TrEMBL record:
NCBIfam families in alphabetical order: dctP, TRAP_S1
Lineage start: Bacteria, Pseudomonadati, Thermodesulfobacteriota, Desulfobacteria, Desulfobacterales
Name recorded for this polypeptide: TRAP dicarboxylate transporter, DctP subunit
Protein family according to the UniProt entry: Belongs to the bacterial solute-binding protein 7 family.
Sorted UniProt keywords: Signal, Transport
UniProt xrefs under InterPro entries: DctP_fam, TRAP_DctP, TRAP_DctP_sf
Length: 325
């Protein structure tokens, strides 16, 4: 009995050493439907938090724009009525122009270079900078390299883009990119299938997973692998809410979201070859080797635009270009 008593005492000490965790529900908003890149990161985060808190913290994922478009989700996060979100980087530029640096055209050569920069000091500088707008930047997951689709004609050079009505997200930068190439950019919230189907817009630009999940091959005949912007998703929390959390909880959530992002990036990249094959089999005409130099030439003017003249933004862009050239 003495031996068993000693074991019970040791178990009690270990149990009491684990800090008590108050039950909590975290609302996390994404604009896309289940199976999409944001949702994969969000659901992995939800599973990790459930596991690591023994179910005491519940992450409730609001998908399919049930909380509004991405700008509206960010506004709710600012106000603290929604705790977290996984949001496309381009949308942040209406809140903080520093994020425009990430979406500078043809900045990143490949996935590995994007990871090295965004997971390093330059990426950390962007995440920290978001605090001035009321966001706690947690990490970057992946949307992917953006490519152009349209229903009008094959596009091989920048000249072929002229006059195309292209949907862009609510971003001054993305609007300027397509203006510089002679297109007619049209800001429009997500989703856009009906607008493409009805011919309200001629085309759009997004990573390959979007074409697969939203079945754009049904309504867009031409795909051009422009890879003009590497587009991450940024996982953010309401700063006012975050600052009320215990340090242990902050660490747990931060670590779980980073793990979810690493998982989602690998998952997304592993599927791209099959996606491209499927789109071709479904009848899309794919320009796999467009004249990228012609696109670069058109967008080189971006660096001198007012979008990048804020001293903080200009400095970071110069350092980003130095790190990626």
């Amino acid at each position: 009995m003495k031996r068993w008593g000693g074991w019970f005492a040791m178990i009690a000490v270990v149990f009491l050493a684990v800090p008590a965790m108050a039950a909590m529900t975290v609302k996390l908003g994404v604009v896309t439907k289940p199976g999409s890149a944001q949702n994969i990161a969000a659901e992995k985060f939800k599973a990790l938090v459930d596991e690591r808190t023994n179910g005491e913290v519940t992450v409730k994922v609001f998908h399919s724009a049930s909380l509004g478009n991405e700008t509206e989700i960010l506004q709710q996060i600012q106000m603290g009525t929604v705790e977290m979100g996984v949001i496309t980087s381009g949308v942040f530029d209406t809140f903080d122009p520093i994020v425009r640096v990430i979406d500078y055209p043809f900045l990143f050569r490949d996935d590995a270079q994007a990871d090295a920069v965004l997971d390093g000091p330059l990426g950390a500088e962007i995440l920290t900078g978001l605090e001035a707008s009321g966001f706690k930047g947690l990490c970057f997951s992946e949307n992917g390299f953006r490519n152009l689709t349209n229903s009008k004609r094959p596009v091989r050079t920048a000249a072929d883009v002229s006059g195309l009505k292209i949907r862009v997200m609510d971003s001054a930068l993305h609007n300027a990119i397509w203006q510089s190439m002679g297109a007619n950019p049209t800001p429009m919230p997500w989703p856009i299938y009906t607008e493409l189907e009805q011919g309200v817009i001629d085309g759009q630009e997004n990573p390959l997973w979007v074409l697969e999940v939203y079945r754009f091959h049904e309504i867009q005949k031409y795909l051009t692998l422009t890879r003009h912007v590497y587009s991450p998703h940024i996982a953010v929390a309401s700063l006012s809410w975050w600052n009320r959390l215990a340090p242990e909880m902050q660490s747990l959530l931060q670590t779980a979201m980073k793990a979810a992002a690493v998982f989602q990036r690998a998952d997304n990249r592993a599927r791209d070859a099959d996606r491209l094959r499927m789109l071709e089999e479904e009848g899309m005409q794919i320009e796999k080797r467009p004249d990228i130099a012609s696109f670069r030439e058109k967008t080189d003017v971006m660096r001198e635009m007012n979008l990048y003249q804020d001293p903080r933004v200009k400095s970071l862009l110069a350092r980003m270009l130095a790190a990626t050239r």
